[in-house]
Known about the structure:
Bound molecules: 2'-deoxycytidine-5'-monophosphate
CATH class: Alpha Beta
Oligomer: single chain
Number of helices: 9
CATH topology: Rossmann fold
CATH superfamily: P-loop containing nucleotide triphosphate hydrolases
Strand content: 15-25%
Amino acid sequence: MKVIAIDGPAGSGKSTVARRLAARLGLEYLDTGAMYRAITFAALRRGIDPADLEPVEHLARTVDLEVSTTQVRVDGVDATIEIRGPEVSRAVSLVAANPGVRTEMVRRQREWATERGGGVLEGRDIGSVVFPDAALKVYLTARPEVRAERRAAEVSDLDYETVAADMARRDALDQGRDTAPLRLADGAFELDTSDMSVDEIVADLARRIDDV
Ligand code: DC
């Protein structure tokens, strides 16, 4: 099974790079952040407090989740747009800090890769928890102002200051939580993408995969 693990903070270039790398290698791609966002969306929609551990864990175990490259469906409802919205973005760190939710997401992610004989998975804990034995483990970073600029360019309705503040808050929560905090995994190599184009990053990673 060939698994490529790509982790890093928001705006480090993970999604674009993982998508492009998967296409180049003929592998499928999984955005695991979209899974945590989808659970958050489902909780808000059902009026469940995202901070309420047990009900959110139960939701994570029972919800019908379909995450593909083009669409995210939650219990059959298209949530592709809503999962990127401000309400979900604000609450998702609470859901991602829920240990029961994480156990279930990790189980689903391993199942996804096993069914496909591998794939490119992108998130925060892929190399540290989900697939510590991945063929290649990458930790992408970029300077905070570069990451905020990239995010601000994606979300047209929010200004740079708001995006930067929101991102700094989420980084702190993701790095500071008790269960599977964002960190550089053992055996992962760190790549600062601040001054690199997407083509350069993908080419760099593809070269490393040829070497393994
Ligand atoms: O990559 P993103 O911004 O869509 O991630 C959404 C949230 O989910 C973010 O706060 C970090 C969290 N996350 C996580 O804890 N573990 C993952 N494997 C992926 C995302």
